[in-house]
């Protein structure tokens, strides 16, 4: 009871007025990281479509989709996504001194984990939606892949 009132006053005067601007500042790198995840997924699926249109090879298509399933765990391909979030390091340094925000690395790591999880969900959903269509007419496969990609991106 003796701590509650001073703590609320401190938060109301020293932290709450800055929350909106802090959130806005932090969301820039986070949003660009998630946008990069979306772009990477889009690019990888487009490459699958182009490869299939060139070869019309269902076996190669299956291999490419299997490789897509490993995308969230491909650190080289996911690295550009993760780098976008590393900008938080600089932004959080200012917060660290002003508001005693600690564990900056944890915030960045959790954000990167969420990005990987989003990619895992995207490729899993893609595979689940596309799987029944693999045996379809090869003329329709490229169109089906595109439709599934758009559905996942939605």
Automatic annotation (TrEMBL):
Signal peptide: none annotated. It holds the Pfam family Niban2. Residues 9-154 form the Niban 1/2/3 domain. InterPro entries: Niban-like, Niban_1/2/3_dom. Belongs to the Niban family. This is Protein Niban. The gene is FAM129A.
């Amino acid at each position: 009871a003796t701590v509650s009132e001073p703590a609320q006053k401190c938060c109301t005067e020293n932290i709450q007025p800055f929350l909106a601007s802090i959130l806005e500042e932090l969301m820039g790198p986070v949003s660009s990281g998630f946008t990069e995840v979306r772009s990477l997924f889009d690019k990888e699926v487009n490459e699958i479509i182009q490869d299939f249109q060139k070869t019309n090879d269902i076996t190669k298509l299956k291999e490419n989709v299997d490789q897509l399933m490993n995308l969230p765990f491909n650190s080289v391909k996911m690295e550009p996504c993760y780098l976008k979030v590393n900008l938080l390091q600089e932004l959080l340094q200012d917060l660290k001194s002003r508001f005693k925000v600690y564990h900056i690395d944890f915030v960045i790591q959790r954000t990167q984990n969420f990005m990987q999880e989003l990619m895992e969900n995207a490729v899993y959903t893609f595979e689940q939606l596309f799987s029944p269509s693999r045996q379809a007419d090869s003329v329709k496969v490229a169109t089906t892949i595109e439709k599934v990609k758009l559905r996942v991106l939605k």
